[in-house]
Design brief:
The structure is a single chain. By secondary structure, the protein is mostly helical. About 65% of the residues lie in helices and about 0% in strands.
């Protein structure tokens, strides 16, 4: 009997129920004895069973360990899919326009905050200068008593 290697495209992808079982196993392992939970967590991390089903190993190959974890978390799981077309051109146009408008609003808001900071700094500086000018000149010697 000849066993053929299973093509990677036919490899079973983890679904939500599988992930829930593995997460439950890790939690149960920590509850029973912490090394069991740690071992289950290490197995899941090493085997890649908890990966997003849409991510590619080569895409994140330059990020290892905690860097890879935080890189994935920062982008969000399946972030590359967000930029793909949905197949509905009307929705894609709407999404593109909405994202453009939101980026413009964000830029305008950041400019507004910068103007507020400058105005606050200017008013604080002006107040400092007024207080400084109101103080008696410290370089003059104090008035001598009449004795």
């Amino acid at each position: 009997m000849i066993l053929a290697a299973k093509p990677e495209s036919l490899e079973a992808k983890p679904n939500g129920a599988d992930k829930a079982v593995w997460i439950g196993l890790v939690i149960l392992g920590f509850m029973i004895w912490w090394p069991f939970g740690l071992a289950a967590l290490a197995y899941l991390y090493g085997s890649g069973k908890m990966k997003c089903c849409h991510s590619e190993r080569s895409e994140h190959s330059r990020h290892h360990g905690f860097r890879g974890f935080f890189h994935t978390m920062g982008k969000g799981c399946c972030a590359p899919r967000r930029s793909e077309s949905t197949g509905n051109s009307a929705f894609d146009d709407y999404r593109k326009e909405t994202l453009r408008r939101l980026e413009e609003d964000q830029r305008e808001f950041m400019e507004f905050l910068e103007r507020l900071r400058r105005a606050r700094d200017r008013s604080e500086f002006d107040q400092f200068m007024e207080e400084r000018n109101r103080r008696p000149d410290s370089s003059e010697p104090p008035a001598a008593n009449g004795s």
